[in-house]
Amino acid sequence: MDRLSNENIIASLYARYGDQVTVLGEPHGLLTVSTAVNNTLDLLAYLKEDPLLRFNYLTDITAVHYPKQDQEFCVVYHIHNMLQNIRLRVKVFVAGPEPRIPSATILWPGANWMERETYDFFGVIFEGHPDLRRILNMDELDVFPMRKEYPLEDPNRVDKKDFYFGR
Questions:
Q1: Cα angle at 68 between 10 and 77, to 5 degrees?
Q2: Structural domain containing residue 71
Q3: Residue 13: what pLDDT?
Q4: Is 164 within a domain?
Q5: Is residue 155 in a domain?
Q6: Which of 9, 57, 78, 126 is 20 to 30 A distant from 85 in Cα terms?
Q7: Distance of alpha carbon 165 from alpha carbon 167, whole angstroms
Q8: Regarding beta strands 86-94 and 31-35, do their DSSP bridges make them parallel or antiparallel, or are they unpaired?
Q9: How confident is the model at residue 156, as a pLDDT?
Q10: Does residue 98 fall inside a structural domain?
Q11: Which residues of the chain register pLDDT less than 70?
Q12: How many angstroms separate the CA atoms of 125 and 143, rounded?
């Protein structure tokens, strides 16, 4: 078996998907690719089931909120080829304010809790999820606390004023 490398992964993805997959970079050696929402499940299934790639372990699913972009949410999948110890990051940019993306629970049952957590904190709706509801926050909470819709600190706090620190 040939040793899997980022170059092999890129070549395999371009051969199958062409311009439907974009290489975003390799920060610290971690290959990061992007695809559209409608390609998400097909790409993840290919990465998992291809005999060369075998990214069989889903490490994490999370999201990022970019409120000033057209596609203001990014759903991020970290997957791992356990046989050769290679990791891959897949990013899928989604428009808001109710971002929707297919659920990966049909590929990895363990995605269940990760998707629930991402829904709970960012409001990403994973279509086809078997039980999409809050997992850590109160059911009554009507906001998604990890969205960048609120200031980090109360601007009226006087103990943070510069004149208290000689500035």
A1: 35
A2: 6-148
A3: 98
A4: no
A5: no
A6: 126
A7: 6
A8: parallel
A9: 73
A10: yes
A11: 1, 155, 160-161, 163-164, 166-167
A12: 14
Q: What is the largest CA-CA distance in the chain?
A: 66
The count of other CB atoms within 10 Å of the CB of residue 135 is: 16
Q: Cα 48 vs. chain centroid, distance in angstroms?
A: 16
Strand partners, 22: 34
If 0-12 CB within 10 Å is exposed, 13-18 middle and 19+ buried, where does residue 165 land?
Answer: exposed
| Count of the separate structural domains present in the chain | 1
The residues, any chain, with a CB within 8 Å of residue 76's CB and separated by 6 or more, are 60, 61, 62, 63, 64, 89, 90, 91, 92
Type and span of the H or E element at 46:
helix 40-49
Q: Residue 153 domain-assigned?
A: no
Q: 84: Cβ–Cβ under 8 A, 6 or more apart, which residues?
A: 3, 4, 54
57 is written with which tokens? 């372990």
DSSP-assigned letter for residue 2: P
Which residues, at least 6 apart from 151, have a Cβ–Cβ distance to it below 8 Å?
none
Token pair of 70, please?
């057209």
DSSP 3-state of 166 = coil
